[in-house]
């Protein structure tokens, strides 16, 4: 089923978009903290960032690729706004009695290289995830949701991890450590979504019933920059 061209966005759609954007922006803020879990060094964002992929799957499965494409770009712009606001906040003169400017700069200040890595990894990973979900749904005639969500996540999270780690830490980490970091993040994030599969089923089925839609992207172009079909 396809949504009418002039259909209004439902409160459910708005809620999914809000959670998607929030998980993305918050993840990029808390990612500055590195944690040690079972001998693995991971950014604190690992607790929330995979949620954006889960919600990306929900958006593509229920509302279709065109809706997901708009939301991915919205998330990019909101994250960019957050980065600019944090940067401008750091430039403002600190009050004489406030002695935490150094902490602000250390925690929230991000190098241009890390920002570039983060932005590119997000776009490549999220669009790959949405494209694969879209095409597999048509090819599988809407069956085997778990196969589609896990397959799209393996590719999307893999590209996200590879692009971010490579751009951010090339010539900083030895090649072997770099490769290990990519694989570690990829497996942890993908495992996160695999474990969340039952929750994904619940959300998808709930939204399809309440919205009365189940979009198949037949004939829809996958160009990330397209504003139409």
TrEMBL record:
Q: Which family does it belong to?
A: Belongs to the vitamin uptake transporter (VUT/ECF) (TC 2.A.88) family. Q precursor transporter subfamily.
Keyword annotations of the record = Cell inner membrane, Cell membrane, Membrane, Transmembrane, Transmembrane helix, Transport
Query: Which species expresses this protein natively?
Result: Dongia soli
* UniProt keyword Transmembrane, yes or no: yes
Known role: Involved in the import of queuosine (Q) precursors, required for Q precursor salvage.
* InterPro entries tied to this protein: YhhQ (IPR003744)
Q: What is the membrane topology here?
A: Multi-pass membrane protein
Specify one Pfam family. Vut_1
Q: What is this protein called?
A: Probable queuosine precursor transporter
The cross-references to NCBIfam families, in alphabetical order and at most eight, read: queuosine precursor transporter
User: Which subcellular locations apply to this protein?
Assistant: Cell inner membrane
Q: Which residues cross the membrane?
A: 12-31, 37-59, 71-94, 114-133
């Amino acid at each position: 089923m396809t949504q009418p061209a002039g259909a209004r966005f439902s409160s459910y759609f708005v809620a999914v978009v809000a959670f998607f954007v929030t998980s993305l922006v918050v993840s990029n803020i808390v990612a500055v903290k590195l944690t040690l879990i079972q001998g693995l060094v991971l950014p604190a964002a690992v607790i929330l960032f995979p949620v954006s992929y889960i919600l990306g799957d929900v958006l593509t499965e229920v509302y279709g690729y065109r809706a997901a494409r708009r939301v991915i770009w919205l998330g990019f712009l909101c994250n960019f706004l957050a980065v600019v606001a944090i940067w401008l906040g750091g430039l403002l003169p600190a009050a004489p009695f406030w002695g935490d400017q150094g902490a602000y700069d250390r925690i929230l200040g991000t190098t241009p290289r890390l920002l570039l890595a983060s932005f590119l990894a997000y776009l490549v990973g999220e669009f790959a995830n949405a494209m694969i979900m879209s095409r597999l749904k048509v090819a599988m005639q809407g069956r085997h949701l778990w196969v589609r969500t896990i397959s799209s996540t393996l590719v999307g999270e893999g590209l996200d991890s590879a692009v971010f780690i490579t751009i951010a830490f090339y010539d900083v980490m030895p090649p072997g450590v770099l490769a290990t970091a990519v694989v570690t993040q990829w497996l942890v994030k993908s495992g996160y979504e695999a474990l969340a599969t039952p929750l994904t089923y619940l959300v998808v089925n709930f939204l399809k019933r309440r919205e009365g839609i189940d979009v198949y992207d037949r004939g829809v172009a996958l160009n990330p920059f397209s504003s139409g079909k």
